[in-house]
Structure formats: structure tokens, C-alpha cells
Amino acid sequence: MHLLIPVKRFDAAKSRLAPHISSTQRAALAAAMLEDVLAEMFQIHGLTGISVVSAQSGLAEQLKGRARVLPEHRHGLNEALTAALAQLTDEGVRRVLILHGDLPIARASDVQGLVDRHRDSDALVLVPDVDAKGTNAMMCSLPLDFPLQFGPKSLERHQHAAAMADRVCTTEPIPSLALDVDDLSALNTVHAIARRGAPSLAPKTRHLLCQWGMGGTRTTYRADPPTVGTFAGTAGGCTPSTGEKRE
Q1: What pTM does this model have?
Q2: Between the N and C ends of the chain, which has fewer C-beta atoms within 10 Å?
Q3: Which residues of 11-28 are buried (b: 16+ CB within 10 A; e: fewer)?
């Protein structure tokens, strides 16, 4: 099983959050969520490799060999993923899990169970988003014999594409993979869940949101992140270090 994570260029990520946080913050958020996802995925047993497909410059240096970066040569998520899957097919990969990089509360135990249940299957496995309309993760066999349908209402369109290709298809809801951060409501929900969870849950994302002062009553966070000092996210919330100013 090979893990493939598509990541949008950080400076172009999370545009729907533009009314609420700055472009600098959106880039930092995308990077933090990717780090949280990778930290969990490194705990998965039985993976033959982890690849990130992205046009983000300097990403290979940032990841420091923890995952391979496949340059995004084609514009668009489906096109970039299709090209990456073709490359993996040429390299002999026969089963792949596509997992989006904006799932900061993803848990290794959930993904391990998914991998273990479907490792030897040839079925297309779809993991829906919280609204059961999008596709937050997909497990498929290679070579790919149907067109990817990521985008609005992708769950139904993937199911239809599988049927047209005569593929066995199963949909498996997994709570920790259901919440992708695309809008302010999802961002606030992620922060609330992370605050209630163990300190290991989404630490990079939680740390960032604590820096921005989330957790109060505000709904817009336009100030850029502090450049000095540290904040610690705890299971009970965001606790600023002694003597620090909280934005």
C-alpha cells in the first residue's frame, strides 16, 4: 500500500478562508495541517512509501526526506493525481491510498484499520467528508481505470465512475477523516476537537490557532501570527507561556 497526499501550493490554499485570515496565515495553516497529517501517517504499518504531489516550491527540503515529493506538472487536482498515479503504476505500485493534506485530526489508528481491512482487496474504497458529499480519502488499485472526480459532490460522482468501470465500490465513513478544513466553521470545529483531545491531536494546527487567539468569541482572525514567543496547546485549550502577549 502506497500513500499519496495531494497538497495545493501553500500560497494558493484555503481561499475560502480569505475573508477571515490573511494569505500568510492561510499558507502557514496549510503547512501545519500537512505536518499533522504526516506525523500520523508515519505511524502506519505496512506502507511501501509515502508521496506528496504538489507544486509547492521547497517542499522536498521542508519534508527532509520524510516523504517523496512528486512535482505537480498538470494543473488541477484530478489531473495532478492522475499523473502521479500513472508514475506510481510505472514503478510497480499496485494499491494506493489517496489522502488529502487538510485533515489535521486524522488518526493513525483509523487509517491503519482502513489499510488492514482493504489491503488485499481490489475494491474502490471511498471515505466521505462530514456532509457525505465529498471524498476525503480513496483507496484504489492500479492501474487506474476510471476518471478521478475530486471536486464538488465527488462522492456520488466517484461511485458512478466506479459503476461505469465495473469496479466494486464501498463507502466507509471514518470520523477522523471526515473533517477537511475549507471554511471558518470547519476551522473552528477542528480547533474545538483538538482542544478537547489528547495533546498529540493536531499539535501543529492547534499551536497555530492558539497563536492567533482562537477559542474566544471572535470569528475573524486577520492579524498575522506573532513572530516571537511560543504558545502551548493543551487538552484543556490554549495556554500562553508566562509573560507572553496573546493576540
Answers
A1: 0.86
A2: C
A3: eebbeebeebbbbebbbb
Does one domain contain both 36 and 151?
yes
174-208: pLDDT as tens digits: 999 999 999 999 998 988 888 887 788 899 999 99
Residue 246: inside a domain: no
Print the domain residue range for 35: 2-177
Can you give the pLDDT at residue 197?
Answer: 78
Phi-psi region of 176 (alpha: psi -120 to 50; beta: other; left: phi over 0): alpha
Q: What angle do CA 139, 33, 230 make, to 5 degrees?
A: 155
Question: Within a 13 Å sphere around the CA of 21, how many CA atoms are in the beta-carbon half?
Answer: 29
In this predicted model, what pLDDT tens digit does every residue of 100-116 receive, in sequence order? 999 999 999 999 999 99
Q: Using an 8 Å Cβ cutoff, are 127 and 135 in contact? A: yes
- Nearest CA among 158, 48, 139 for reference residue 93: 48
Compute CA 129 distance to the chain's CA centroid, rounded to the nearest angstrom. Answer: 12
Contacts of 91 (CB under 8 A, 6+ apart): none
**Using alpha carbons only, what angle is made at residue 136 by residues 72 and 71, rounded to the nearest 5 degrees?**
10
The residue to which cell 486524522 is assigned: 106
- Which pLDDT belongs to residue 230? 25
Using CA atoms, how far apart are residues 137 and 125, in angstroms rounded to an integer? 8
Regarding whether 216 and 97 lie in a shared domain, the answer is no
Higher pLDDT, 222 or 105: 105
Q: In whole numbers, what is the pLDDT of the chain averaged over residues?
A: 86
